[in-house]
Design a protein that fits this description.
The protein is an all-alpha fold. The protein has 20 helices and no strands. It is globular, with a radius of gyration of 22 Å. The two termini are 30 Å apart.
């Protein structure tokens, strides 16, 4: 039976891997600010926002596949649409595992092809409408190729996460980001500007997939499962797996769309309504708050496969304990990093005085991001039980956020504030309280105070003591 064990090595590599994944936005930030003009900086954030569209085409397959891979790895020989097959002491089904692998390959080949056509066909005219600079267009073409290759081989990440190879997945990210840092610094210093940054992104994506593939097939159990397997009527079996996975993947897809609309869509609104210069300031603020949120969420992301394993085995107490501990870790980390970011904000303003970022605006954006991530982590925990009850609420709230942001940005004098206040107001109306309540009271069956106390206690004993060792 495949076993998922998350130890200190996985946690450490998760922090290191995510730090270096984000380092392109932290270590290089002063250099990017220094060597890119205001328009180039704004255009780079537009690239990133449009590039997120290709992730929308994934439409929830990445989290859905990772969950189902965990179930198969732990012994499930049949996937369910809205429930779990509880198993004990059962070996991984070799044929079913390979069917999952083939299904993933088919899915991402289709997504990559569609994504490339859409990015070139729809993204290119939008880029040209913002600027007629040929360098911007060339940089966009390079960025598009990188984004397409990223999605083509991203199933390796789903498999590594699904089987609990968290360290290996993050080592791949470390190698890729080191390459991106070196290439970005070199090309910026040589004066290639936005083209150089886009080229670094392309090379980073290629190296990430190559290293991920190496680690995937370097795992003894994987080599054993993938060797000498003949699957009769493979396409038909893959299609059946696809239909089962699609039930919740479609719901995860709505969540992915809502995530995009709630975050990246505002950058596009800013660029088209307020202007590229303001987009640089807003994009930078959003980027820093997203970095803080991502780093703070590392413990949760690291133990999520273990939560899924415990749910498959019927260990509700162990699953809820991991959830409360990771949520306590998130809050402590987020508050600490937010204070540090506010203290260091003058450094960024010193590097580029033209950035219109106020302390109050930045603090409210951080508060919005904290609330946003809390209910998203709660929803992610709910999903470990193979149910997705929150998809419709997420998509409705994200559409409301975009509409409110656009109207207030275009027809009021609020400026960037319109893009900060709108998502905060919409979140507080429903999602901010509904899904934490659903997870804590509805799934775990405890109250908020006991949940917080348990999380802090376990955080002190299980995480801090391990780090000291």
């Amino acid at each position: 039976m495949g076993k998922i064990t998350i130890d200190s090595r996985d946690i450490i590599w998760s922090y290191l891997g995510n730090f270096l994944k984000l380092s392109i936005n932290v270590i290089l930030l002063p250099i990017i600010i220094r060597f890119l003009s205001d328009e180039e900086l704004g255009m780079w954030y537009v690239f990133a926002s449009i590039g997120q569209l290709i992730i929308l085409l994934d439409f929830g397959f990445a989290p859905a596949l990772a969950r189902n891979i965990s179930y198969v790895w732990c012994g499930s020989s049949k996937l369910e649409k809205t429930s779990l097959q509880v198993v004990t002491n059962k070996e991984t089904d070799k044929e079913y595992f390979n069917i999952m692998l083939s299904t993933c390959k088919y899915i991402y080949m289709a997504i990559a092809l569609i994504g490339m056509l859409l990015l070139m066909g729809l993204g290119t005219p939008y880029i040209m409408s913002l600027s007629n600079d040929s360098n911007f267009l060339l940089a966009w073409v390079i960025y598009t190729i990188g984004a397409t290759l990223n999605i083509l081989y991203s199933y390796y990440a789903s498999f590594l996460i699904g089987i609990g190879a968290i360290a290996e997945n993050n080592i791949s990210g470390v190698v890729a980001k080191l390459i991106q840092i070196v290439v970005s610094v070199t090309t910026l210093l040589l004066g290639y500007g936005l083209i150089g940054v886009s080229l670094a992104y392309l090379l980073s994506g290629v190296s990430l997939r190559l290293v991920s593939r190496y680690y995937f097939y370097n795992i003894d159990a994987i080599r054993s499962l993938c060797s000498s397997v003949r699957i009769d009527d493979k396409f038909s079996k893959c299609w059946n797996v696809f239909k089962t996975v699609w039930h919740n993947a479609s719901r995860d897809g709505l969540v992915t769309v809502s995530n995009y609309l709630s975050t990246q869509a505002n950058t596009l609104i800013c660029s088209s309504v307020i202007g590229l210069t303001s987009t640089g300031a807003y994009g930078l603020s959003l980027q820093i708050s997203s970095i803080i949120s991502t780093i703070s969420s590392i413990p949760f992301a690291s133990v999520q496969p273990a939560m899924q394993e415990k749910n498959v085995k019927g260990d509700m107490e162990g699953s809820s304990k991991l959830f409360s501990t990771s949520m306590a870790s998130f809050m402590i980390s987020f508050i600490t990093l937010s204070i540090l970011a506010i203290i260091l904000l003058p450094v960024l303003l010193w590097l580029k005085p033209t950035l219109q970022i106020s302390y109050i605006m930045f603090a409210v954006l951080l508060l919005n991001m904290a609330i946003y991530q809390i209910f998203h982590l709660s929803a992610s925990y709910i999903s470990t039980f193979n149910v997705i009850p929150y998809s419709k609420a997420f998509i409705v709230s994200s559409i409301a956020t975009v509409l409110l942001s656009y109207v207030t940005a275009k027809y009021s004098s609020w400026g960037i504030w319109a893009l900060i206040i709108s998502p905060l107001v919409v979140s507080l109306l429903y999602n901010a309280w509904k899904w934490p309540h659903y997870a804590i009271y509805g799934v775990i069956g405890t109250n908020l105070c006991d949940f917080i106390k348990s999380g802090i206690k376990d955080f002190k004993t299980n995480i801090l003591l391990k780090l000291r060792k």
